[in-house]
Amino acid sequence: MTEDRIPLAALEHGTPFADRHVGPMPAELARMLDVVGVGSLEELGEQAVPAGIRERDGRLDLPEPATEAESLEELTRLAERNTPHVEMIGLGYYPTVTPPVIRRNVLENPAWYTAYTPYQPEISQGRLEALLNFQTVVADLTGVPVSNASMLDESTAAAEGMTLVRRAGRSKSPRFVVDTDAFPQTLSVIETRAEPLGIEIVRADLSRGVEGLPEGEFFGALLAYPGASGAVRDHEEVIAEIHRRGGMAVVSADLLALTLLRAPGEMGADVVVGTTQRFGVPMGFGGPHAGYMAVRKGVERQLPGRLVGVSVDADGNQAYRLALQTREQHIRREKATSNICTAQVLLAVVASMYAVYHGPSGLRSIATRTHRMAAVLAEQLRRGGVEVRHDRFFDTVLTRVPGRADEIVAAARRNGVNLRRVDADHVGVSCDETTTRQRLALVWEAFGLAEGDRTPVDRLDTEVPDALPSGLLRDSEYLTHPVFHRHRSETALLRYLRRLSDSDVALDRSMIPLGSCTMKLNAAAEMEPITWPSIAELHPFAPAEDAAGLLSVMEDLRNWLSEITGYDAVSLQPNAGSQGEFAGLLAIRAYHRQRGQQQREVCLIPASAHGTNAASAVMAGLRVVVVRCDDEGNIEMDHLRELVDKHRDDLAAIMVTYPSTHGVYEDTVQEVCGLVHDAGGQVYVDGANLNALIGLARMGKFGADVSHLNLHKTFCIPHGGGGPGVGPIGVREHLAPFLPNHPLQPQAGPETGVGPISAAPWGSASILPISWAYIRMMGEDGLRRATLTAVAAANYVARRLHDYFPVLYTGKGGFVAHECILDLREVTKNAGLSVDDVAKRLADYGLHAPTMSFPVAGTLMVEPTESENLEELDRFCDAMIAIRAEIDKVAAGSWPVEDNPLVNAPHTASALAGDWEHAYGRWEAVYPMGVPESKIWPPVRRIDQARGDRNLVCSCPPLSAYEGQ
């Protein structure tokens, strides 16, 4: 062998995945470390991370890293172990057809799935318009005027509806009535949510109408329309009686059914909730799917989650933005309307485009076909001697088969069909847009109806009337806006989607250096499996053996996450970080109660914490007490000792973020844990900043009892424009009995669990292979390298920019963790500018702004992640340095305070081409650092946020609405 020949063993597998995921090349990394002042990544870890928590001799027990091809081959073999059936179980999950133009150009398109929450609206107009379409679909079909931009799922939307009407109503009663015909998972989630808040759930048979309502007062009620049984009932009289008795009405409604049925808003509903899953979003063994909530006028400011509205930009042009942003949880904390921070934006976009593509006539046609299949199914069963329980239904037929339910369900499975076993005497069958005559025949056969004894389908179709109540047929219009009529061809929709994505800045166009958000590479090899039919077409309530391969992926993921964090058990059910916080705090509360210490209800939270912490604590029935932070941003230890001593008998927990929200490895974390444990409390470590710990320290080993882990941050599930997210929790052994469980899947959690906190047993199961693939391809060394490179990138940015914008907080040795806070307060104050001006000006440089004014007002929190190479890091740093020079010109009087590139940013192409009467030149406005390889043009100028909040417009407005404004 010649000396320069590379051994075959070194060539067999190609470039390791970690070399693709981690941005800086070795030479670039060396330059970065030189600026930081260390000789290696390991030296950086030794100096930045407190010695007391560092993992020195422990190795992570993870598989050797696989290549992208090997990982996909392994996932393919696992997916082949899944056996999707024809799913006719229903209960809010239905087979659907994702139009290929939407699947390829939204769900599989990084321009959509790598975008962040549209807090910078000027460079987020595309996804904001898509979300406004979503809100319009929901508002039009439900018949109530204000919809939010999506919820986590139908069951949590119903639970949020319950708490909304409690806040908004006048009744002092603690009772909430739930229709017994609600989906069972929804009822269970509501009960989980209600118990810590002291809400008493009253189950009522509202099929009896007004007579089914309980005696006495109640603050609200949930009605199902249609119900789990499939029955369609007119709720108008019940809603009127609820109102007469001082309560408010929440209706859970099927959006597809509402294309044919009278809208709940027309019956008087105050709140309408549900899911948009059957609008083109695959079942995916439970998610992710976009839930929805819409409310009547007068309670819109109580609406949880995000709300997209319409305003104007500096030139008076119509522009979209998030409305009422002060409701976001990091602002309102324990006074927040909800702890929700993640929505399901990517799935809401899919659902909205499904409506755009099909239009009102197409949706009505799909619903009509679905209903006709159910009507024909029911009539054949009747003619075969099977009792059908309801005469009026939309898509679900409930049969009474005394003692035969198991036999029929088993026969259907032998035919490749999953039906719903309600109990030993009842079987439910749900139809959908994919139902065919052949599938109906398989169902009839399972019920024992021989082919020769059946009426031909075409004859049945002519003989059988619709099964919809005549008094509930819809006569009101919906989806009248032109957007639902202009894009019916694939060419038109393709171009519409391209126009919208070109109006946005996502990770496919620019670094997104958002502190606390970890916007890192979402590799194509990780994303590929999510649309495989063997994963996408699984029903979450099908027998678990149908998902054997996916359950194996979940088992691997749970074991790997336990190993990485040092915890003993992991639940994958929470489908957002906020849900993980809630589940973890419920586990702590249940642990104290099981030990007879019900009085432990105080939750200590540092002043620097993310606002969802406080909101989650209140939801879990805990009382928030704030711990001060010192001038360095660390927990003020004397104040903590004082509070721990004061609350020694009623302390439930402390919630800390580590590294801190200020981007610092606090060296007191073990002492904090010890103080709380000595007082009988538990330690919750928020896992939002886990990207700074993997391979360096483990929360479960340095003193924490429970953490949520943001898979959409550290473990590469993409943010999708503001969701999906996944927030599993890891716990130590003593809390494992109190993890979430589920009434419809015993394998999903311990029998002693706190109940379900999400609609689906394993939450957003279909996107868990993304995180599985990331860990599988990175391996132990790759994960550690990613962590240290992320820390190196943050320290590099901090060192390069410190002389221009001081870094607010650092740890010992002057190091930050994975993010740094740039203090703009003094420099912008001297020039009469704001942090918003700097953020908007970055758009002219083709960059997304860092996190603004959190956790400190007037600052930018920067998190570059390990995925960005040195060229991109320098592009950001050079832009910030150039902006500092612009600020100095304003401060020196070279540019007027009221007319300079910052206060007028961002600059659009139309502004450049129009009349120019500014104190600076056109070139300075749009090419501040010379002509780049490609220019990102913001589609609108600065948006008037205050005007939009004063004048909420939350659905697609006609163009005439803005004439003369």
TrEMBL record:
HAMAP family: GcvP. It comes from the Bacteria. It comes from Actinopolyspora mortivallis. Residues 786-907 form the Glycine dehydrogenase C-terminal domain. This is Glycine dehydrogenase (decarboxylating). InterPro entries: GcvP (IPR003437), GDC-P_C (IPR049316), GDC-P_N (IPR049315), GDC_P (IPR020581), PyrdxlP-dep_Trfase (IPR015424), PyrdxlP-dep_Trfase_major (IPR015421), PyrdxlP-dep_Trfase_small (IPR015422). CDD domains: GDC-P (cd00613). Keywords: Oxidoreductase, Pyridoxal phosphate. The modification N6-(pyridoxal phosphate)lysine is found at residue 713. GO terms for molecular function: glycine binding; glycine dehydrogenase (decarboxylating) activity; pyridoxal phosphate binding.
